[in-house]
Amino acid sequence: MAAVWQQVLAVDDFEEDPRAQGARGHRRSVSRGSYQLQAQMNRAVYDESLVPTSVAEASRAMAGDTTLSENYAFAGMHHIFDQHVDSAVPRLQFANDDKHLLACCSLDGTLSIMTLSPPPASVKVTLKGHGGPVTDFAWSLSNDIIVSTSLDGTLRIWNTEDGRCIREVRDPESSELLCCTFQPMNNNLTVVSPIRDVFSFLYSLVGNSKHHLQVVNISTGKKVKGGSSKLTGRVLSLSFDAPGRILWAGDDRGSIFSFLFDMATGKLTKAKRLVVNEGSSICSISARSWISREARDPSLLVNACVNKLLLYRVVDNEGTLQLKRSFPIQHGSQLVHSIFCPLMSFRQGACVVTGSEDACVYFFDVERNTKAIVNKLQGHGGPVLDVSFNCDESLLASADSTGMVIIWRREQK
């Protein structure tokens, strides 16, 4: 299930830029000319000529002269959270553009919002209300709201400041809800403040246990006309491309589907299907427009219970996938997730990070043909289910099946 803030405002001269709301209460206005520029940038997602090349000296200077192995060397554990001990933590994520705020969900039916600064690290607030295990969650762009899904068949919307449940929306088919994500925002998709004014324009894509992907108006709980599709299995993972035009959905039968998403109407159009491995669960999908100066093509990172981390190339505007390479990990049954490193590096090589069923966190250089493992972190007591970097990559969080969340501190060079 993905939640999509869907308001297109008609303002005569200026619009609010949602990306300027990282500091609450501070906004800037942008002209419609900025929208035209954003539209041009969105259309150029697959244009390789716009990606920095190997002669981008200034960009390389920003990245520094360290190798990938040096850059992703970790000094040890910064902190351990154990408030969900004995219940698996399937997902965790740092807040958008934030160094010290992160959240996780648990199969004990709760979510935690944690802060790492000022020290000591602590649980800021616990989100309680779901009647079953929490399967997934997502931060809104401004970090004011979290949306969560649960096996109790509900989606809940939470205020991240005080932990209040603002709204509960039941799945139209009364089925278990397994995944969610916000649609990436550009300048003409705006979140309105205060919170109570949002819901007339809030939509979600529901990925459920009955194989359905459905766009739902969260304010009314009603389905959006033309916003539904059926996959071959239970919907386990969702990811948009950067402009929010292509949605990939993975199921527990080994298929990845791509959909064209109409941001004005919420309509879904099925485009392509790839069978990764018949009967294997597609438990994680992450999209990236480009990875590094060498890897300039749009890419999809996939965990598929085949004892490999898979990297696909996106070859067209319908989301067609072509396998680029794979990396060996221990992954046969658990819902293991992986990520692209958030900083798009202009140094030689590029890195991805994944959990694994052998209780380790692995870093791989996607451009290295041999000995691709850059680093390996050990310390968990069970399969590592999810990983997340903060915005400047100074901290990495990892969560496992025993309920432990470890914060790792990167070595300072």
Automatic annotation (TrEMBL):
PROSITE patterns found in the cross-reference section: WD_REPEATS_1, WD_REPEATS_2, WD_REPEATS_REGION
GO CC annotation: nucleus
Superkingdom field: Eukaryota
Record GO terms (molecular function): promoter-specific chromatin binding
SMART domains: WD40 (SM00320)
WD repeat feature ranges: 127-168, 377-413
Signal peptide: none
Protein name: WD repeat domain 13
Species annotation: Seriola lalandi dorsalis
